[in-house]
Amino acid sequence: MSDQNSPKPYQLLEAELLPKLRQGDKQSLNRLVEAYYGPMRALARSIVGESIADEVVQEAWFSVYKALPKFEGRSSLKTWILRITANEAKTRLRRESRHVSLEAISGGETDLLPGRFQEDGHWSVPPSSWHDESPDALLTNQEMGDCIELTLGRLPESQQAVFKLKELEDHSFDEICNILEISASNARVLLHRARVSLYGKIEHFQESGEC
């Protein structure tokens, strides 16, 4: 059983690369790109969509490279990079005149699935015939994975961003709030709404075999 206090793989990577990155070492930068391109693209896609996600990531890497000498280590390097990515994505949305505020939460939120979630974010009462703890595990099933990806793609950008950071990237709420620059209460509401949508689709798929 692993020690919960042990450093995460990305923390070990950052500890190794950061001194060289500060010196402008290109090989270390290439390793960083390889490690974080996937999470960056997933976050960018959840905010701006598929068509310009790669452009946003390229812009984010340019900003990361310029700002690296000023990185103070107040958060993990990964969190800092994802925050830059989120900011680049939101800036691009504003330029495209279709910005959706991540703070725009309507009032009167009700718990549509009372008792379904534990404090740690896992299901208390899973969808029927589902015994895995997180949506990430379901992606190994091709048809279910396709259905989940389709459902996620139809969610509002803000919900997609929070859901993917929490459920698929395993970020804490503090990290999510730091990356997206939203309040903890807004992050929890956005995550809840995404889960409600995904929950209904999973149960429908398991009962009917159709997405």
Tally of helical segments = 9
Mean pLDDT: 77
The helix/strand class is mainly alpha
- Radius of gyration, whole Å: 18 Å
Biggest sheet: strands, sense, closure?
none
H/E series: HHHHHHHHH
Beta content comes to under 5%
Low-confidence stretches: 98-113, 128-133
Specify the helix fraction band. 55-70%
Shape: elongated
Assembly classification: single chain
For the record, give the distance between the C-alpha atoms at the N and C termini, rounded to a whole number.
37 Å
Number of strands: 0
Layout: helices, strands, pairs:
Elements: H1 9-22, H2 26-48, H3 53-67, H4 77-95, H5 135-138, H6 142-154, H7 157-168, H8 173-180, H9 184-208
Describe the model.
This protein is mainly α. Helix content is 63%, strand content 0%. Helix 2 (26-48) crosses helix 4. The longest helix has 25 residues, at 184-208. Mean pLDDT is 77; it is low at 98-113 and 128-133.
Quick synopsis:
By secondary structure, this protein is an all-alpha fold.
Structure characteristics:
single chain; 211 residues; mainly alpha; 9 helices
